[in-house]
Each structure stands twice: as structure tokens, then as C-alpha cells.
């Protein structure tokens, strides 16, 4: 019985399912296998961490779950959609509606205020001014930055910029948020505060977060930890949904 079948049999609902994923990069005349027959079941409304040494395939898997990259073999299902069957345009639209991203370096637009950075994906999506005016203040409040709405990124601390990035990732109400080493550029105290915030977002919005990380505090906070080595899964550790980290 595969991990997917086992987890489904337990009644867990998936936000993403990867089945027999393989990926090889071709560099000049050299072929480098990166992912080797991987199965992953990402539970809904859970905090999932991909753990493994550099080169183990964590970022490649995140890119495939995030619909940025495609496998050479295997199937990727996100929010019940077989993303490999979508055209490029349909895939871009699906990704924008269903997946949020948080980056190590925050990726905020320096000329826009905290409010405007959060509002920006809503503008791109054609969301009305009325709905933007309702949603953005609520997100600022949720991440504790109501009093910083007019500040530019350069006027914010690293932790505050990451809070803006989290709010922006949630702006379109995605089912899944993906982050590659989200606390890597933060001090330990700020990183711990960001983790607490993200766990609160899981509970408040029932969103699934999936990260790659080497940070022990991130790993400790996880509901599920997926261990990778040389492009293959070496183990999965799951806590009960809602169990204290």
C-alpha cells in the first residue's frame, strides 16, 4: 500500500499528492537525477516540512508542488487538479489562484508600501477596489502590522517584511502556501515569532503550509516532516492534526 493510499484510508484530506515523481536535469552531456520515484501526500490544513541535505531535491519538489516546474515522469495533483494536464496559460492562472509563495529575501516591491505590496496580487487578479479595501486591512491586522500599512519595505525590519510577505501570500485565499527556507535570513527570536504567526494562519484560514528547512525550530513546529536524501524519501513523520508541536 502506497503512502497516499494509507493516508487516504485514515481519512486525511490532501491538498497535494505526488505519485512516482522523477526528475533529471541535463547539464551539457551530463544527466543528473534529482528526484527518484517520489510519492508525497500533503495533508490539508497542516504544516509540512521537507528536510534533507543540500542537493536532496527539496527545492525541486517545492517547485513541482508549486506548479513552477514539471516532472519528467509521474503525476502531480494540487487541490484535486491534475496540473500536468493544464495548458501553460491555464497553469499560470491555477497557480495564481491556488498557491501562495513566501521567499527568503521577501521579494517585496521596494517602491510600494506594506499595504500596496499585499494589494498588488489582488490588483493583478482584477479584484474590485471594494473587496481589496476589505481584505488588505484584515490581512495587515492578522499579521500584526495595521500600524505599518504606509511604511515602505526599507522602513521595516526583516521580521516585519516577512510578515508582509506572508500576508501577500494569503491575499488571494490560496489552498497552499510554499516557502523555501522562510526563516533563513532571520534571527532566532524573529524566526520563532514568524513560525508562531504561520501556525496561527494554518488554524485561522485552514491553509496548508509546506516548507523546506534545516531550522530545528521549524522542524519542531511541523505537523508532518518528510525526510529526503539523494532525491528519494527516507521517511515520513506525522503528528495528529491539531496536536501540539
TrEMBL record:
InterPro entries, per the entry: AAA+_ATPase (IPR003593), ABC_transporter-like_ATP-bd (IPR003439), ABC_transporter-like_CS (IPR017871), ABC_transpr_LolD-like (IPR015854), MacB-like_ATP-bd (IPR017911), P-loop_NTPase (IPR027417)
Gene3D superfamilies for the chain: P-loop containing nucleotide triphosphate hydrolases
Signal peptide coordinates: none
Calcium is among the record's keywords: no
A Pfam family the protein falls into: ABC_tran
This protein's UniProt keywords: ATP-binding, Cell membrane, Membrane, Nucleotide-binding, Transport
Stretches assigned to the ABC transporter domain: 19-244
Keyword Transport: yes
GO MF annotation list: ATP binding
Protein name: ABC transport system ATP-binding protein
Species whose genome carries this gene: Rhodoferax ferrireducens
Amino acid at each position: 500500500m502506497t503512502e497516499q493510499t494509507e493516508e487516504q484510508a485514515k481519512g486525511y484530506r490532501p491538498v497535494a499528492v505526488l505519485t512516482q515523481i522523477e526528475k533529471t536535469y541535463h547539464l551539457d552531456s551530463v544527466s543528473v537525477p534529482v528526484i527518484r520515484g517520489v510519492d508525497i501526500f500533503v495533508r490539508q490544513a497542516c504544516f509540512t516540512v521537507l528536510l534533507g541535505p543540500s542537493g536532496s531535491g527539496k527545492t525541486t519538489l517545492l517547485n513541482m508542488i508549486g506548479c513552477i516546474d514539471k516532472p519528467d515522469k509521474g503525476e502531480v495533483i494540487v487541490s484535486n487538479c491534475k496540473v500536468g494536464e493544464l495548458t501553460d496559460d491555464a497553469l499560470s492562472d491555477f497557480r495564481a489562484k491556488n498557491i501562495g509563495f513566501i521567499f527568503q529575501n521577501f521579494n517585496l516591491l521596494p517602491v510600494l508600501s506594506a499595504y500596496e505590496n499585499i494589494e498588488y496580487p489582488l490588483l493583478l487578479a482584477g479584484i474590485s477596489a471594494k473587496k481589496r479595501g476589505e481584505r488588505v486591512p484584515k490581512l495587515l491586522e492578522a499579521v500584526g502590522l495595521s500600524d505599518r500599512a504606509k511604511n515602505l519595505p526599507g522602513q521595516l525590519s526583516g521580521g516585519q517584511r516577512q510578515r508582509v510577505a506572508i500576508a501577500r501570500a494569503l491575499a488571494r485565499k490560496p489552498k497552499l502556501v510554499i516557502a523555501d527556507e522562510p526563516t533563513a535570513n532571520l534571527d532566532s527570536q524573529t524566526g520563532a515569532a514568524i513560525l508562531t504567526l504561520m501556525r496561527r494562519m494554518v488554524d485561522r484560514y485552514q491553509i496548508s503550509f509546506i516548507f523546506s528547512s534545516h531550522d530545528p525550530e521549524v522542524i519542531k513546529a511541523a505537523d508532518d516532516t518528510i525526510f529526503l536524501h539523494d532525491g528519494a524519501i527516507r521517511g515520513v513523520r506525522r503528528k495528529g492534526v491539531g496536536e501540539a508541536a
